[in-house]
Design brief:
about 40% strand; 4-stranded antiparallel β-sheet; about 260 residues
Length: about 260
């Protein structure tokens, strides 16, 4: 399975209304002229968009068509679930500047309410080395649910001056037993790199989920199952935050594990 070393992450939200059978990508000037390595689509899991107004639309039975800025058809009616790593897929390599005005999503299914398709857009250099993940810092938020904003202001002082090489999320019910603390909550992580050329804008927690415990009763040591790493960069945590955007009001714990060098 492919490993991903992330330099920059941006996002696109597409609004899909009842009755629409084709939805074009928004003309997003902040992505114009940027070489896209991969797109990743968010699965619903009781999720809401960044505004908290609209539900995340299931990508089941939807198809994506992409053109590059030279007019070439680079993805022709691809089943959109191939743009998800949730089931263990390797993301298709795009490696092109996308002509967003011509690219679109085909919607051959009935949409009952206005919904949103959310994509992370991975941008950066190719074939970066996988960084070290020997050092680990855990941060736990004991009560997350529904719609809320969690500031990281003054919560990650221990990592001041450190370069982050990965971040992973784990969610569990506060009512569960230690060996049952596994689950999902829809949310988005916004990190502000101190390198002004870098950005990590609202990557879904679902995309960095995947942990198990080496020993349930011995310090709950988390080991990441994910294949995503961060090209080492120092983070301004005082400007960083998490948006929880879920229809689930069940109180859960959220653990973020930061690897650093």
């Amino acid at each position: 399975m492919r490993e991903y070393v992330i330099q920059n992450v941006d996002f696109i939200q597409l609004t899909v209304n009842p009755g629409e059978d084709r939805v074009y990508f928004p003309v997003s000037t902040h992505l114009q002229g940027k070489k896209v390595l991969y797109l990743e689509v968010l699965n619903p899991d009781k999720g809401l968009d960044l505004s908290g107004r609209y539900p995340i639309l299931s990508p089941d039975s939807l198809f994506v068509t992409l053109y590059d800025t030279s007019g070439n058809l680079i993805i022709d009616t691809l089943f959109i679930n191939y743009l998800s790593t949730l089931t263990g897929n390797d993301l298709p390599r795009i490696d092109s500047e996308i002509d967003w005005e011509r690219s679109f999503i085909s919607v051959p299914v009935s949409v009952k309410q206005t919904s949103v398709l959310f994509f992370s857009v991975y941008i950066g250099s190719e074939n970066l080395p996988v960084p070290s993940q020997k050092n680990l810092y855990n941060l736990t938020f004991p009560s997350v649910a529904g719609k809320m904003e969690i500031s990281l202001f003054r919560k990650v002082q221990a990592l001041k001056g450190k370069k982050i090489t990965g971040v992973y999320a784990m969610v569990g019910s506060t009512a569960g037993k230690p060996d049952q603390l596994f689950g999902f909550i829809n949310g988005y992580l916004y990190l502000v790199p101190k390198d002004k050329t870098r950005y990590i804008n609202y990557i879904p927690l679902q995309f960095i989920d995947g942990m198990f415990f080496t020993s349930i009763y011995e310090n709950y040591t988390p080991i990441s199952l994910q294949r995503k790493f961060i090209d080492p960069v120092e983070i301004d945590f005082n400007r960083s935050k998490i948006l929880i955007r879920s229809t689930d009001e069940t109180i859960q714990t959220l653990n973020l594990s930061f690897y650093y060098e």
